[in-house]
Amino acid sequence: MSNTMKASVTKGLGQGFVVEEVELAEPIGHEVRVQVKASGLCHSDLSVATFLGGEFPMVLGHEVAGVVTQVGPAATQVAVGDHVAGCLIQYCGSCVNCLSGRTHICLHPEATLRTADQPSRLTWNGAPVAQRFLAGFAQEALIHENQLAVIPDEMPWAPAALLGCGVLTGAGAVLNSAGVQQGETVVVIGAGGVGMNAVSGARLAGAEKIIITDIEDDKLERARAFGATHTVNSRTTDPVEAVREITGHGADHVFDFVGVRPVTAQGIQMLGKGGGLYLIGVGGTDAGIDVNVKAISNAQKVQGVYMGSSNLKRDIPFFASMYLQGRMNLDDLVSKEISLTDIDSGYEALKDGHTARVVITDLS
Ligand SMILES: NC(=O)c1ccc[n+]([C@@H]2O[C@H](COP(=O)([O-])OP(=O)(O)OC[C@H]3O[C@@H](n4cnc5c(N)ncnc54)[C@H](O)[C@@H]3O)[C@@H](O)[C@H]2O)c1
Ligand SMILES: [Zn+2]
Ligand SMILES: [Zn+2]
């Protein structure tokens, strides 16, 4: 098997994504070699490439689905030929948090990486290239088996790529972090690619009222195809009043996918007695909330959320199953399919409000 492949390399802050011939190392330990079939464009990769930075050159990408072509000597959880979806949650499997089932807050996430004295997984022109997240913007990737879940062979590639990030984050927040019960009321603030999956999660949970708020009517309209029962344009309608009117006594759960102070403050005001506000969106460095204790004195709570409190080995196959049974809409999330050479223009397209998600499916 040749170890040379095409990867989209980010050479410096703001320098975009350029396809180069990159060397992939042989899998060691628990590493798995994956032939990438689909790779989603996520805002987090763009943030690293444009302002957060890191070790350059780097290969980004973490919304990966593909086929296992080789496994390291210690890998036992996946086999050659398996269809897999990747996830950026890194966990060791043996710390106290992992052992209590909370792998998303593992205390030793570095366990899935190579150590500094081991050769880099990726090299370009003989020099190391940083693997950022899963380095999924490439024809192949070396990924620790803990970061891969096996999915059914009949799962199509483009929606499969979304399972490990947007789907886990949105639907996981509802099902795992909040534990929404049947008959409860849910508000989703922000009808973007991740918020849509919270709507899907609320439908799976049997929520009676699923209210979505956004500032753009076409996004609100799209949300109905995912299961929203009520839509509120917060540019033209006071969303707090609207939610109080629809629910009668305030919401049981509010999920904030926007993360700017005035919006988050509205989230608190939407809560009914015992309700919970879940913070997922990070709208800027100043994202946050000032909580007046009186405003939450009816047993309300506010919680930060990481990756939908997901257990990727359990939840990725579950959501794939829900999709295959027609109980979860992922098709309407894939707005555009592109080739590996078109990542820059793919991110341009994402700025357009009509595009939910862009997925690389041409990796030739
Ligand atoms: N915590 C995590 O684990 C995690 C993981 C992935 C993504 N995220 C975050 O989730 C957030 C949502 O991601 P996304 O891909 O859906 O983004 P997106 O840009 O597709 O969606 C955001 C939506 O919010 C809407 N919006 C903007 N201002 C609003 C306002 N004042 N009121 C109501 N709606 C408003 C926009 O119109 C848009 O539809 C991002 O901040 C992202 O960083 C968090
Ligand atoms: Zn992502
Ligand atoms: Zn751990």
List keywords for this structure.
9 helices, 26% helix, binds nicotinamide-adenine-dinucleotide, 7-stranded mixed sheet, binds zinc ion, globular, single chain, Quinone Oxidoreductase, Chain A, domain 1, alpha/beta, 364 residues, 18 strands, 28% strand, Rossmann fold
Tell me what you see in this structure:
The structure is a single chain. The chain is α/β, with parallel strands linked by helices and 364 residues long. It folds into two domains: 4-150 and 330-362, Quinone Oxidoreductase, Chain A, domain 1; 170-307, 3-Layer(aba) Sandwich (Rossmann fold). The chain is 26% helix and 28% strand. It contains nine helices and 18 strands. Strands 3, 5, 6, 9, 10, 17 and 18 form a seven-stranded mixed sheet that branches. Strands 13-12-11-14-15-16 form a six-stranded parallel sheet, with helices on both faces. Strands 1-2-7-8-4 form a five-stranded mixed beta barrel. A hairpin with a 7-residue loop joins strand 1 and strand 2 (18-24). Helix 3 packs across helix 4 (195-205). The radius of gyration is 20 Å and the shape is globular. The model has no long low-confidence stretch (mean pLDDT 96). Bound molecules: nicotinamide-adenine-dinucleotide and zinc ion (2 copies). Nicotinamide-adenine-dinucleotide is lined by residues 43, 169, 189-195, 213-216, 219, 234, 257-259, 263, 280-282, 305-307.
